[in-house]
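From the shared-data thread, chain only:
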Amino acid sequence: MKTVSGLFDTYAHALEAVHALNAAGITNTDVSLIANSPEGVGKPFDIVGKDLTAGAELGAALGGAGGLLAGLGVIAIPGLGPVLAGGWLVAAAIGAVAGAGVGAATGGVIGLLTSAGVPEPDAQIYAEGLRRGGTLVSARVGDELAEMAFDVLRRANGIDIEDLRRVYEQEGWSGFDDNAAATTPEQEADARDRYPLVPPFL
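Structure, as tokens:
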């Protein structure tokens, strides 16, 4: 099995990618999503810590009708804080669970991704993209489906992570920092405007 991932500038584009994976025959049991500051929700998910049941309801509502991802809810990931997350990649990392998909991840996002087979340099970019308000979609597929899944994610308004790496490095970035300050909504909007999207396929 391989883990194939795509980073998206908006939560809406990430949901489109999940649906595209489903249409290609990859079921939701093999798909995971992590979203930082999904549009229309705000940050830092003020609901978390006050009412975990409401946090689970928030995840269900944002998952969309039809059960997009089982267990979608709000969890806290070290280095990112509260994020909306669900699926196989996240399930193994959740420690204390109170309600469907609501709890705390036991490790940082870099370890979460590398333990699933994501190369560490890519995990660094995905983690930084998440910190700046992006959304990550990952699919667990057999070797024979990996290239197809990768193409599906690229076609679904995915971000070119190599170009994104160059953008970050030009700003002086050298790697994901668990202790970096949380981004503001304004900074996240600016980051989304500068994300290098994959050119449309002909």
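Strands lie at 2-8, 31-35, 73-77, 81-87, 94-97, 103-105, 135-141.
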